[in-house]
């Protein structure tokens, strides 16, 4: 879990703007506990997501709320419903525990600085109720909007459901911005802007993903590529960068895939250690591996998350290709340019893939290192 730097500035601002030291203490305590509840809310999403096989790369707390970054979007509507409901459910449970202790909160408890433990607990209970209600507003990509999308997704395609949810979300975001502007409620204004751009971003992401359809890694992967031997120098690696147009290279010895070395590592090594260092000293021995029959839509996030991502494609223990983010974006570019009716037949899974003509002979790959933790890729 991470605290965004603006969150710390926000806490500092609260401390400085309070009328007295005591008020500052109570207010800091209240705000910290509220954000603890928001963190638990995001943890609720994350735990259910992990139970359903969707890993979570990070949870970040911002002054306007929390964000749990899933490594991929759940495609199953029921999974999305379960993951989404888990967050507000945490706040509902917290409120259910606090209400019998402190009693029902008044509006004053919510808007004034608490002055004793009782008013603090009432404020927390009230805030958790507000969090549940606010999150259920169907402003995609807020929780209510995600629920709306997931329910729509049971009726129409995921892409269409996302489109509709994004339009509704952006409409509500404009309302938030106008109301926030009118009442000088800046947090609401910021949340509105966050929702507006978030809805647009996620809609684009889903459209791009739908273009992938059920394309397999083997349909898109690069079949001709350069490789390096562990004894090759980093200077040789950099030559290959401009000679081949590749940014990352498999490092191979006696038919075994030892690692991957990418352009930033090569440049870094030349600058720090000189041009004659062998690539074996700078390569990354922990790498993600995919198979030709994997669906690109399912491995895309991991691949994009690798940054310079050249992901080796392994079949029957042999390196048969490399999958690059560029392969994926070009495939999407071609599909987007095709008229809808022709898409499936023209560019799709090729029934007879071209023969493997890699620059390396088919090689035996040793038992691979345990699946490496995929790098962080906020979604
Ligand atoms: Zn949530």
Question: What does this entry show, briefly?
Answer:
With about 375 residues, the chain is mainly alpha-helical. It has helices spanning about 5-15, 20-50, 75-100, 105-110, 115-135, 145-155, 160-180, 185-210, 215-220, 235-245, 265-275, 295-305, 325-335, 345, and strands at about 1-5, 55-60, 65-70, 250-255, 255-260, 310-315, 320-325.
| Hetero ligands | zinc ion
Major sheet strand order: 1-2-3
- Annotation, overall tally of beta strands: 7
**Biggest sheet descriptor:** 3 strands, mixed
How many individual helices? 14
Give the SSE order as H and E letters.
Answer: EHHEEHHHHHHHHEEHHEEHH
Structural class: mainly alpha
Helix content: 55-70%
The parts where pLDDT drops under 50 for at least 5 residues are: 343-379
Terminal residue distance: 16 Å
Q: Please state the overall shape, judged from the principal axes of the Cα atoms.
A: elongated
Q: How much strand?
A: 5-15%
On the 0 to 100 scale, the average pLDDT is 81
Radius of gyration: 25 Å
What keywords describe this structure?
379 residues; mainly alpha; three-stranded mixed β-sheet; two-stranded antiparallel sheet; 14 helices; 10% strand; elongated; disordered C terminus; binds zinc ion
Task: Explain what this protein looks like in three dimensions.
The protein is mostly helical. It is built from 14 helices and 7 strands. The protein has helices spanning 5-17, 21-51, 77-102, 107-111, 117-135, 143-153, 158-182, 186-212, 217-220, 234-244, 263-273, 296-305, 325-337, 343-346; strands at 2-3, 56-62, 65-70, 248-253, 256-262, 311-315, 318-323. The strands form 3 sheets. A 3-stranded mixed sheet has the order 1-2-3. Helix 2 (21-51) packs antiparallel against helix 3, helix 6 (143-153) packs antiparallel against helix 7 and helix 7 runs antiparallel to helix 8 (186-212). The relative contact order is 0.09. Bound molecules: zinc ion (ZN).
């Amino acid at each position: 879990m991470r605290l965004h730097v603006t969150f710390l500035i926000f806490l500092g601002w609260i401390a400085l703007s309070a009328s007295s030291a005591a008020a500052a203490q109570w207010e800091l305590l209240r705000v910290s506990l509220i954000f603890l509840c928001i963190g638990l809310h995001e943890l609720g999403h994350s735990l259910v997501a992990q139970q359903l096989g969707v890993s979570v790369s990070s949870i970040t707390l911002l002054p306007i709320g929390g964000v749990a970054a899933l490594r991929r979007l759940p495609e199953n509507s029921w999974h999305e419903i379960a993951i989404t409901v888990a967050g507000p459910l945490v706040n509902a449970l917290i409120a259910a525990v606090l209400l019998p202790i402190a009693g029902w909160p008044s509006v004053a408890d919510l808007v004034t600085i608490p002055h004793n433990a009782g008013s603090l607990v009432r404020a927390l209970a009230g805030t958790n109720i507000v969090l549940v209600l606010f999150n259920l507003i169907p402003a995609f990509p807020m929780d209510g909007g995600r629920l709306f999308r997931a329910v729509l997704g049971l009726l129409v395609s995921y892409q269409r459901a996302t489109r509709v949810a994004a339009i509704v979300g952006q409409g509500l975001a404009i309302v938030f911005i106008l109301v926030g502007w009118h009442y000088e409620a800046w947090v609401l204004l910021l949340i509105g802007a966050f929702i507006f751009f978030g809805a647009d971003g996620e809609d684009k992401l889903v459209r791009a993903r739908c273009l992938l359809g059920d394309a397999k890694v083997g349909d898109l992967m690069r079949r001709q590529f350069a490789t390096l031997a562990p004894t090759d120098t980093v200077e040789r690696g950099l030559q290959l960068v401009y000679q081949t147009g590749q940014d990352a290279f498999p490092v191979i010895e006696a038919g075994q895939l030892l690692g991957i070395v990418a352009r930033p590592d090569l440049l870094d090594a030349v600058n720090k250690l000189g041009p004659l260092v062998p690539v074996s000293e700078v390569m990354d021995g922990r790498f993600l591996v995919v198979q030709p029959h994997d669906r690109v839509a399912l491995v895309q996030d991991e691949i994009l998350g690798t940054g310079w991502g050249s992901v080796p494609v392994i079949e029957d223990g042999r390196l048969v290709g490399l999958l690059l983010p560029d392969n994926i974006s070009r495939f999407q570019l071609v599909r987007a340019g095709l008229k809808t009716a022709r898409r499936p037949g023209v560019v799709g899974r090729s029934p007879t893939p071209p023969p493997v003509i890699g620059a390396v002979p088919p090689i035996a790959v040793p038992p691979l290192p345990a699946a490496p933790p995929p790098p962080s890729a906020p979604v």
